[in-house]
Amino acid sequence: MSKPEKIVAIKGMNDILPADAPLWELFENTAETILKSYGYQKIVTPIVEETGLFKRAIGAVTDIVEKEMYSFTDSMNGDELTLRPEGTAGVVRAVIEHNMVYDGPKRLWYKGPMFRHERPQRGRYRQFFQFGAEAVGFTGPDIDAELIMLCRRLWDDLGLQNVRLELNSIGNAEERLRHRADLIAYFESHADILDAEAQRRLHSNPLRILDTKNPAMQEMVNGAPQLLSYLGEESRAHFEGVKRLLDRNNVQFTVNPRLVRGLDYYNRTVFEWVTEELGSQGTICAGGRYDPLIETFGGKATPGVGFAMGIERIIELMKGLGEPAQPGQCDVYMVHQGEEAQVQAFILAERLRDAGLDVVLHCATPTGAGSFKSQMKKADGSGASFAVILGEDEVANNVAAVKSLRGESGEQQQATVAFDAVVDHIVDAIVGGHDHDHDHVHYHP
Ligand code: HAM
């Protein structure tokens, strides 16, 4: 028989292995705690939505919609479906569908996988995870500032340094229209410098040309008319309001007049948190205001603003800080030998779990049940504070041997404890000595 062909993961879609899981947990716990402390509530929307939702929300002439969506026809019923490339469209759909703002504005957060058919590279994947927040029904610059400040709190709590904030205002549709005419005229007068991509976008989405990474176009683009000087009274006041609140709260930022974002739903405030530590994919969080979006979906005119962060990119930054301090895999490792001892080990393990402890029970592997010695090695490697040992003698005497593996002075002490007293014995020993609190972030370099 020929060897079966190996199946591997889809290119650009990654496994998150147990070795990295503590960092992911640390990120998610910290982010969720912060979002809760600002009054944000969790929302979960489907990974698959109608293709039309993203086309309308993100815009037909964007990289995402033009070439990055995983879209397909459901062969069961002919529906046109897409794996969500981002979270805002789905959240906004849910807000309208469930009439969520009928009793006032809402602060929401979400996390989950997103899908974009991009060319994979460091920090850019085809399945990636976002952690995002959307605030719907708030008009003022205060909520924009709040969203930005809660990001800063998250970077601080995670210990991330060298993350900076770029800010811009792209005004409203009318202001952009006036700017657009001058922008096109400017680009046309420099037609010889425009690359193929820019020429293609000249009349469909000229604003995105400002975003170009082409070094040959930088100087020309730097001299282009700036949207900021086309802002009317209200947009200008809103932007000043955001900047004032950030200033007064010591949030540092730079205004980047070329920051326009790659999705069409934005107006007024846009922002990105960027780092130089991740190479070309250095934006760890991005967002902005999208006031007209809900109305274009047939909802009652309701303003919105939000952000999403790329979790893989943040994990990469966290890796540079070292391993998070974690308790071991478990509190207690159960070592046993013999048929009756195994039954007793199961019973005791359940009682210990009832008492709130994490317990790993030794189970057979292809090399067998394992000698006491090899089981004790596993117990040591598990990071457990205690090994509970049950053999024929212990069963006959209705006791268990309890061995402390992480004594204060490093020495391992063993006690013989009555079977029914084992739970109390271990709980008493662990209380005070063991930190089950994951809220505070510590790293081991
Ligand atoms: P976005 O800029 O397309 O915005 O994505 C937000 C963040 O997701 C990026 O800054 C990056 O960290 C991460 N990200 C995007 N694409 C990839 C990828 N291929 N691989 C790894 N990470 C990636 C949005 O998605 C908007 N929905 C944000 C928003 C929410 N605006 C308002 N509310």
Automatic annotation (TrEMBL):
GO terms for biological process: histidyl-tRNA aminoacylation. Keywords: Aminoacyl-tRNA synthetase, ATP-binding, Cytoplasm, Ligase, Nucleotide-binding, Protein biosynthesis. Belongs to the class-II aminoacyl-tRNA synthetase family. HAMAP family: His_tRNA_synth. Homodimer. Residues 1-327 form the Aminoacyl-transfer RNA synthetases class-II family profile domain. The keyword tRNA-binding does not apply. It comes from the Bacteria. It is found in: Cytoplasm. L-histidine binds at residues 86-88, 116, 130, 134, 261, 265-266. It holds the Pfam family tRNA-synt_His. This is Histidine--tRNA ligase. It catalyses: tRNA(His) + L-histidine + ATP = L-histidyl-tRNA(His) + AMP + diphosphate + H(+). It comes from Massilia litorea. One of its GO terms (cellular component) is cytoplasm. The gene is hisS. InterPro entries: aa-tRNA-synth_II, aa-tRNA-synth_II/BPL/LPL, Anticodon-bd, Anticodon-bd_dom_sf, His-tRNA-ligase, HisRS-like_core, HisRS/HisZ, HisRS_anticodon. GO terms for molecular function: ATP binding; histidine-tRNA ligase activity. Its EC number is 6.1.1.21. The lineage of its organism: Bacteria, Pseudomonadati, Pseudomonadota, Betaproteobacteria, Burkholderiales.
